[in-house]
Amino acid sequence: MARENKTTGKVAGIVANLVIVEVDGPVGQNEICFITLKEERLMAEVIKVVGKHAYVQVFESTRGLKAGSLVEFQGHLLEVTLGPGILSRNYDGLQNDLDKMEGVFLKRGEYTDPLNREKLWPFKPLAKPGDTLAAGDWLAEVDENDMPHKIMVPFKLTGRYTLKSIVPEGVYTVDHKIAVITDSEGNDTELTMVQKWPVKLAIRAYKEKPRPFKLLETGVRCMDTLNPITEGGTGFIPGPFGTGKTVLQHAISKQAEADIVIIAACGERANEVVEVFTEFPELDDPRTGKKLIERTIIIANTSNMPVAAREASVYTAMTIAEYYRAMGLKVLLMADSTSRWAQALREMSNRLEELPGPDAFPMDLSAIISNFYSRAGFVYLNNGETGSITFIGTVSPAGGNLKEPVTESTRKAARCFYGLNQGRADSKRYPAIDPIDSYSKYLEYPEVQAYLEKNVSEKWLGDVLKAKDILLRGKEAMEQINILGDDGVPITFHERFWKSELIDFVILQQDAFDKIDSSSPMKRQQYMLAKVLEVADASFSFGHFEDVSSFFKTVINQFKQMNYSEFKSEGFERYENELDSIIKERLN
Amino acid sequence: MESQAFQKVYTKLTNITKATVTLKADGVGYDEIATVHGRLAQVVKIMGNDITLQIFEGTEGIPTNAEVSFLGRPPQLKVSDELAGRFFNAFGEPIDGGPEIQGEVRDIGSPSVNPVRRKQPSNLIATGIAGIDLNNSLVSGQKIPFFADPDQPYNQVMAMVALRAKTDKIILGGMGLTNDDYLYFKNVFDNAGALDRIISFVNTTENPPVERLLVPDMALTAAEYFAVDKNESVLVLLTDMTLFADALSIVSNRMDQIPSKDSMPGSLYSDLARIYEKAVQFPSGGSITIIAVTTLSGGDITHAIPDNTGYITEGQLFLRRDSEIGKVIVDPFRSLSRLKQLVVGKQTREDHPQVMNSAIRLYADAANARTKLENGFDLTDYDERTLKFAREYSDRLLAIDVNVDTDTMLDISWELFGKYFNKAEVAIRENLVKKYWKN
Ligand SMILES: Nc1ncnc2c1ncn2[C@@H]1O[C@H](COP(=O)(O)OP(=O)(O)O)[C@@H](O)[C@H]1O
Ligand SMILES: [Mg+2]
C-alpha cells in the first residue's frame, strides 16, 4: 500500500466516531489515516470505501470536528511496533504506552512510543555471516527481564536472505543497525531490533501447527482436573455478570505455567486493570521467583476508552502474542471480554447501516471470531523449537442467555467451554464453572490422553471420567429427591447425591482469595482426587437419610481444612488422619 | 441563554422530526450546542453542510423558519466552591432562586482518567446496614447501583447511605424524579444539616425526558472538580438510571437507529460505561463514588438496562421485600459488591470473609428447605434449623432498618451459628471457629 504521494482528503460527514472522508487518491481497506482537528491529530481506520468516499472509524472522540477538516492517509494498516521492552508495559488498545502519557486524564490525539529508544540492551548474536535466513528466523538474543528475547528477521520480508554482517556481542539501543541481510538479487537490507506488523493479519513464521497435546497447568482444579486446557489450546468462559469470569481469568494469569502472560482488558472495568497494576508487581511468579509483572503485558482498553480502539485491542494483544511465540515461548493470552469487542463491531456496523444479523450484530460475526481464535495454537518453528499461544476469552452473554450470537459463534471456535452458572455463583460455589455442561474437547484427543497417561498417571484419565460420572449421577439423584421427597427415594440416592457434593466441595470449589487454596499444583490435584475417589468408592452403612448428609458434611469439612492447609504440612496430615478415622468408623 | 453579537443566525430548517431538526450551515463542530427556537440543541450528525440537531425539549411547535444559532462549544458547567448547597436543572442553571455561579467554565463529558493514574480503591464506606456492610461492603471509588422494583424505598435507602457515609460532598443527579421525591431529598439533607455539602442537578418528571441525558455528565463534571481540584471524597447519587436509558432509547428510535435488545440502542453498554467509569480513587486522596438506582420491572434483571448495568458496575444491591418478616432486605443472593474483597478481613475483623460466606450458604439451604415445604415434602431437622436461622438472620441482619457496626454484625452471625448449627455444618476454618464460636 506504500505510495509515492500521500493520499489526502477532507471530512465530508460525521456521525459519532464514524467519519466520511472525500479522498483525492487511492486508499486501502483498513488503511490508517489522521484527521486534523486544530492542533490535534485523530487516528482513524478505513472500514468501507464507496466511490470517492472513505468511511473511517475514529479511535477518539470526534467532539468539535468540522466538515472540511484535512485528512492524511498513511499508506499502511494499523500496526504494532515489536522489539525488546514490551514486557511489563501497560498499553492502550493501539499500543500507546499509558505510563508515558502526561496528566491524570487521557488526552485526545496523544500517541506515545511503545518502546524505550534510549535503553541499552545486552545483545548476543545467534546467527553468523553467511547463514541463510527467512522471515522469523533468529538473528540474536537480548535479555528482557531474564527472558531470552529473540531478534528476528522481520516477518514482513519474503524470500531467502544471506546474513552479510551482524554486530558483535555488546549493548545497543533498539534502533541500532544490528545486521545487514542480502536477498537473492544482491540487495542489502539493514535491520534494527524493531519491526512492525499489521495487527489484523496473522504472523505465520512457523513450520507447522500440530494439534495441541500438552497440558497447560493453571492451578485451577476444575479446569486442570476436569476439563484441562492445553498449551496452544483455546477456551472461553461465558457467564452472566458477577459469576466470576474476571476473577477466574486473573487466577489463571497468576498461576498458569506460561512464560509470557498477556492480559487484554477489552471494554471492561478500569479498576480491574488497576488491580493487576497493583498486585502483579507484588506477587511472585511461582516458577521463576521473579515478580509476576515481569512476565506480563497489559493491553488496557477499558469500557470508557474509545470504542473503535476496543476492537483493535484484541488484535494488538494477539499480534504481540504471536511475536513472542515466534521466539519459542509459551504465551498465555486472556481477553476480557470478547463480547465488548463484538459490541464495538455492532456499533460500527449499525452506523454504517449494514444489513444486521441476529441481535443486530454484523452478519460475519462468526467468521471474525473463528478467524481470531485460529491465531492461537502450538507451533513448530522453522528451527524446530516450539512455541504456543493459549487463548482464553470471556463472553458476557446478554441477559445471561447462552443462545445469543457471541456465545454461539465462540462455541464453534473454542475447544474448551467453561460455562459459569448463575445458581452456583449465587450460592457462592466458586469458581462457578458448571461441571456438567462444561467440556474440554482436548480430553478426547488421543495425543492428550497419551500425554496425561505419561505425565500425570496411568489411571488419571479413568479417575477423571469417574469423577465426572459421579457428578452427573449425583445431579440425577438430586432431581429424583426433589421430585419424590427425601424419604420417597432409597437411601442410596442420598449417598449418590452426597458423593457428588463431596467432589463439588473439595475438587470443584476453590477460594480464589485464599493464599493456599487459590493455586493447586497438579501433584496436589492428583492426590486430592485420589483421596476423594477413595471415599466415593467406599460403601457405607447408613440407618437414615439424615445420617448421610451429616456424615458427608463432616467429611467435607475435614477435606476443606486440608484444602486450606499447606500440602503435606503437619496440619494437612492431621486433618487427613482425622478424616481417615471418621471414614473408617462408617465403613461397611 | 447566551448569544453573541457576531453569531450568524440561520432561519431555514430543511427537515424536522420528533427529536431533531436539519439545516444547512458551515463551520459547525460535532457535539456542539445550539439554540433552536429558544431551545437547547446539540449537533448529532454532519453530512457536508447538512447539520442535524437533537432538540432536548422536543420539536413540538418548531416552525421551518425557526431561529438557529450555534454556540461553538459543547455543553458546559461553571465550577467553583459556590456549587455547594445549590440546586440546578439539567443544563446547570440554578433552580433554587439563588444567583448564577461564578467560576471556571468546563466542558461536560470530559475524557477518561488514564487507568495507570488510578489508585486501587481501599477505603471502606460503613453504612450501618448489615445487608451492605456485612455481605456487600462498599469502598470509596466504587460504582454500584440499587436494583429495585419501583415500589421499593430505594431513594430512602440511598439517602440514608449517603448521609452515613463520611464524604466531603454529595452530588445528586436526579433523572425523572417525581416532585415528591425531589422534595424528599431536599428535606432529608436539610434536616441532617448537610445541605451545605450537597449539590443537586435535577430533572423531574415535569421536565422533558431527553434533557435527562445531560444530568449525569453535569453531576460528574462537578464531582471531578471537587475530587481532582480539591482532593475531596465525593459521593454521586444517580437516580433513576433506568429513566436515563429510556431517554437514550427515545432519541435513538427517533433517529431511526437499529435497536438491539429491548429496544435499547446498540451503544447502551458504552453509553452507561462512560458514566459509571467516572468512579475513581485518585492517588492524591480525592475520590468519586457512584451509587445509582436502576429500577426493574417485575424484578427482571435480564432486561437490557439492568443487564448492561450489571456488566459495568462493581456489583449491585438488590432490594426485596421479605414477606416472612415483613421488611425490605438487601437480598444476599443477587447482591454483590465486587470490591468487598479489598476491605473485608483487612479493614474489618479477620473472620469477616468466612462468616459472610457461611451465613449466605446456610441462608441458601433455607431457601431449598422452603421449596421442599412448598412442594409438600417433610422437612428434616436440619431443614427446620435453617429456616429458623434464615428468619432471624433476615430480621436481625439483612433488613434495611439495621444500624450497627461491623463487629456487632459478625458477633450476631456467630451467635446465630451457635444457636442453630454445629461446627461442621458451618464449615469455617478451624482457627476462627476456636476463637469466635459461641454456644
Ligand atoms: N473463585 C472465587 N472465589 C471467591 N469469590 C469469587 C470467585 N469468583 C468470583 N467471586 C466473587 O464474585 C465477584 C464477581 O466476580 P467477577 O469475576 O468480577 O465476575 P464477572 O467478571 O463474571 O462479572 C467477585 O468480586 C467475587 O466477590
Ligand atoms: Mg468481569
Task: Write a compact overview of the structure shown.
With about 600 residues, chain A is α+β, with helices and mostly antiparallel strands. Chain A has helices at about 220-225, 245-255, 270-280, 305-325, 340-350, 365-375, 405-415, 420-425, 445-455, 460-485, 490-510, 520-535, 545-565, 570-585, and strands at about 10-15, 20-25, 30-35, 40-50, 55-60, 70-75, 80, 90, 120-125, 130-135, 140-145, 145-150, 160-165, 170, 180-185, 190, 195-200, 235-240, 260-265, 295-300, 330-335, 375-380, 385-395, 415, 440. Chain A is built from 14 helices and 25 strands.
Biggest pleated-sheet summary of chain A: 9 strands, mixed
CA gyration radius of chain A, whole angstroms:
27 Å
Largest sheet of chain B: 10 strands, mixed
CATH architecture of the largest domain in chain A: 3-Layer(aba) Sandwich
How much of the polypeptide of chain A forms β-strand, as a percent range?
A: 15-25%
Termini separation of chain B: 70 Å
The outline of chain A comes out as globular
**Largest interface, counted with CB-CB under 8 A?**
A-B, 75 and 80 residues
CATH topology of the largest domain in chain A: Rossmann fold
Oligomeric state as shown: heterodimer
CATH architecture of the largest domain in chain B: 3-Layer(aba) Sandwich
Uncertain runs of chain A are none
Could you give the count of β-strands of chain A? 25
Number of domains of chain A: 4
Please estimate the helix content of chain B. 25-40%
